[in-house]
Amino acid sequence: MLDTESRTPFDDGHIMFRDQVRRLIARDLLPHAQDWQEQGFVDRSFWKACGAAGLLCPTVPEAYGGLGLDFAYNAVVDEELSYFASPAGIDLHSDIVADYLVSYGSEAQKQRYLPAMVLGDCITAIAMTEPGAGSDLQGIVTSARRDGDDYVINGSKTFITNGQNADLIVVVARTAAETRGKGVSLILVDAAAPGVVRGRNLDKIGQHSADTSELFFQDVRVPMTARLGEENQGFAYLMQQLPQERLSIAICAQAAAQRAFDEAVAYTKSRKAFGHSVFDFQNTRFRLAELATDLQVGWAHLDWAISRHRQGQLTATQGSAAKLWHTETLWKVVDAALQLHGGAGYMNEYPIARLWRDARVTRLYGGTSEIMKLVIGRSL
């Protein structure tokens, strides 16, 4: 369990909320986690349970069915789900898509979608990545062509979180022939609309219970009122939301690193070798001491970043640095923790094996570590 008593971004309200999150995880997540791993997605019943408990989209204003809370409540949910190794896609739904609607949606769009998102009745996805455009979102080719009062969307997307379960998809599409990011718009598409085709639920190295899919759009017709915000401003909107998106990934990475460390400590204390616990060997203690130091630094930095973001002061560069440092640190911690398990660490029956597999992709999604370095380097 995460130690949160001395955490600076959280007050009594956050602490009470965290207890509620932990109770829900114990009741509605952990008993089903293995089944969801095997089936390749999290049941909608879990989304409904999260909605009923107030865990979804806590920052959505009360006027649209939300609690109107600050982002630190999102952070609580992210930390607890990540500590218990659940890549359910809730962070994307609550931390990313909800904010796009709150920030750029029309009143009609907010009234239609946000209350259902809060309750878990409407699961969301954002379709950015394409087979030929990953970290460089300016290179997308999916098109949304005007036809009277409608857009007609054609293209394909891949690596889409919540792609199988999604009811609403925010599609990043090109609405003008201008090069790079200038002609991109965000368009809300009902996943049941004619021409929307769900492809494979992708076979991944890790995060097996995460619903990650291909999506195809074949002459999908939507009204122009489905556009989110202004036409051709989509790339600017994406850039404005990046600090929170990358902070969200950093939060999840830090919590997962803590879990991997805790598993290593518990295992080395219980495992005997040459008449002693593995924990008692100097090499083990030195390695764990290094990891504990990394985690101490990580929690201090994360709390700084969360506090700064709550004040509206976290920059795109700082968000990128947080994403870079915490995901790279996660990989360092989880790999060392598996090594400390010895051969047992390679067995799927031990939690560290799943943590290790799930960690690898965090250095890729949300912008690769190399892209984070480019962003940071440009600010120097």
Describe it for me?
The chain has 380 residues and is of the alpha+beta class. The chain has three domains: 12-122, Orthogonal Bundle (Butyryl-Coa Dehydrogenase, subunit A, domain 1), CATH 1.10.540.10; 125-232, Butyryl-CoA Dehydrogenase, subunit A, domain 2; 236-378, Butyryl-CoA Dehydrogenase, subunit A, domain 3. It is 49% helix and 16% strand. It is built from eleven helices and ten strands. The chain has a four-stranded mixed β-sheet, covered by helices on one side. The protein has a four-stranded antiparallel β-sheet with strand order 2-3-7-6, with no helix packed on it. Helix 4 (71-83) crosses helix 7, helix 7 (234-270) packs parallel to helix 9 (316-340) and helix 7 packs antiparallel against helix 10. The longest helix is centred in the middle third of the chain and has 37 residues, at 234-270. It starts with 11 loop residues before the first helix and ends with a helix.
Order of secondary-structure elements: HHHHHHEEEEEEEEHEEHHHH
Q: Regions with pLDDT < 50 over 5+ consecutive residues? A: none
Number of strands: 10
In DSSP terms, counting alpha (H) and pi (I) runs of 4 or more, how many helices? 11
**Any idea what the CATH architecture of the largest domain is?**
Up-down Bundle
Approximate strand percentage:
15-25%
Q: Could you tell me the radius of gyration in angstroms?
A: 21 Å
N-end to C-end Cα span: 38 Å
From the 3D structure, determine the CATH topology of the largest domain. Answer: Butyryl-CoA Dehydrogenase, subunit A, domain 3
Kindly provide the name of the CATH class of the largest domain.
Answer: Mainly Alpha
Structural domains: how many: 3
Biggest sheet, spatial arrangement of strands: 1-4-5-8
Shape, per Cα inertia axes: globular
Mean pLDDT: 95
CATH homologous superfamily caption of the largest domain: Butyryl-CoA Dehydrogenase, subunit A, domain 3
By secondary-structure content and strand pairing, the structural class works out as alpha+beta
Roughly what percent helix? 40-55%
- Major β-sheet, in short? 4 strands, mixed
